[in-house]
Each structure stands twice: as structure tokens, then as C-alpha cells.
């Protein structure tokens, strides 16, 4: 008898039962899966974006796996073969120290892509959590957090990165952290905007009614629903990071020898471009091609995930 009365009391309460919350979550999951399928179909119809994706993957494979199949070591010097033009033995030629330039371009691509991807991941981790917390809490907390973002936008971050590199040395990990720490602001704004529109949805209110913690709601329910714009931002942040790393390399604050990124190779090549133009042409070609592919892919993903932007 007491069980029936207890059930009646629970039924009268406004709190949605677990089955209702589960149904809402299932509907949201099904809708999210449908959105991703539709986005993939739209991306497949964008020939330029799809071609950019395959070219970018081919470049990654070339840089990651290529050195394993080459008979040359990126750091092996042979002064008798210094500054030799492209040939069957050395398709990209050699540099002034006799090092095979094709292997150097592969190794440089590894480092440039690693800097771009890792620094972007650092920026996304900071920006996604910061923006999600600001948007979810709202009110004065949101206002204060976003004013802090506005303040950081006004600072000359390139100078900040240069000062860090001068003060703490040219460590590759410091490059990851320094660049990633200045690229998260746009991500935070985009995620905050998305969360502001989601936090009044039924599935969030149901999770609140069931007593889920704020962090669980943010991580399990809100962030997955703003991943579309975040992915677009990521594809556009990677080339921006690679450009910044190349700029640091031109200033002598990039990767330390004997390692070399594409930025370092381009810097070395432009010093000898009038006499040995191949030293500039090959690293610059791969660097520019990668940037174009990522930008075209980012545009395609934006149009696929937000069809309205493509129509506008």
C-alpha cells in the first residue's frame, strides 16, 4: 500500500521521470546523428572541399611515412653534394650542406603539422571549456568572463609569444603552449554563443530536474551539441598557427636546429633563392598547398554544417 502512495506522490511532482529524460536524450541523439549525416552528404557534394581533404591527407601521409622509405637521413651531411639541383637520386635537390631536401621537407612537414595540430588542440581545450562555462552560467559571471576575453583581444599577442620564446628558450613544447594560449579566444566566443541558445532546451532542463551536476550537463549535453562550429574553427586555426610558427622561424625564434619546420626551410631557402631556387620552391609549395587545403576544407565544413551560411 505504501508503495502505491509513494508512486502517486512522485507522479504528482513536476520532475520528469527518468523515462521521459531518456526519451528526450534519445530524440536529441537521433537528431544529432541525422545532422551529421546530412552534413557529410553536403560535404561530399562540395568537390573542392572533398579534394582538399584528400590532398591534405596525402600530404600528411607523405610527411609521416615518407622518411621511413627514404635511403637518406634528414641530418646526414655530404659537402661534396652541397646545393645539387633536383635529380633522380635527389628529387628535390640538396641544401648547401648536402642534405637531401625531400627528406628535409618531409621532416619539416611533420613538425609544422604537429605544431599546428597540437597548438590547435590546446586552444580548443581552453576555448571550449571557457566558452561553455560562460554561456551556461550566464549573468554577471558570463559578462565578467567575456570582458576578460575582450581585454585579451586588445593585447598584441605576437609580441607576447616572442617574449615567451626569448625568456624561456625555443622549446618545441613551449611553442605549442604559447601559440595555443593565444588562439582560444575565437573558440570561446563561438562556443558561448552556441551554449546560450542550447541551455533553455528541453534536454538541458530535464537534466537539471534530474539533479545532474553543472559540469556533467556542460560536458555530456552542451559541448557535444556545439562540436560542429568547433570543428570548423579547428580547421581554420591550424593554418593560422602554422603561419605564426613560420613567422617565428623567420625571426629565428622557431624550431631549433638540426630540426626544421617548413618555416625554417623557407627561411633558409629565401636566403639562397637567387642561386639555388629549389631550396625555396619545394618547402614553400608544400606549405602553401597545405594552407589552401585547410582553408578550403574549413569553408566546406562551414557550409556543410551551416547550410544557411552557404546560401547567404
Automatic annotation (TrEMBL):
Keyword list, A-Z: Cell inner membrane, Cell membrane, Membrane, Peptide transport, Protein transport, Transmembrane, Transmembrane helix, Transport
Main location: membrane
PANTHER family for the chain: OLIGOPEPTIDE TRANSPORT SYSTEM PERMEASE PROTEIN APPC, OLIGOPEPTIDE TRANSPORT SYSTEM PERMEASE PROTEIN OPPC
GO terms for biological process, alphabetical: peptide transport; protein transport; transmembrane transport
Compartment annotation: Cell inner membrane; Cell membrane
Residue intervals of the ABC transmembrane type-1 domain: 109-298
Any one cellular-component term (Gene Ontology): plasma membrane
Annotated region described as Disordered, given as residue ranges: 1-21
Similarity comment: Belongs to the binding-protein-dependent transport system permease family. OppBC subfamily.
Membrane topology: Multi-pass membrane protein
PROSITE patterns cross-referenced by the UniProt entry: ABC_TM1 (PS50928)
Name of this chain's protein: Oligopeptide transport system permease protein OppC
Residue ranges of the TM segments: 48-69, 111-136, 148-166, 172-191, 226-255, 275-298
Top-level taxon of origin: Bacteria
InterPro entries: BP-dependent_transpt_permease (IPR050366), MetI-like (IPR000515), MetI-like_sf (IPR035906), OppC_N (IPR025966)
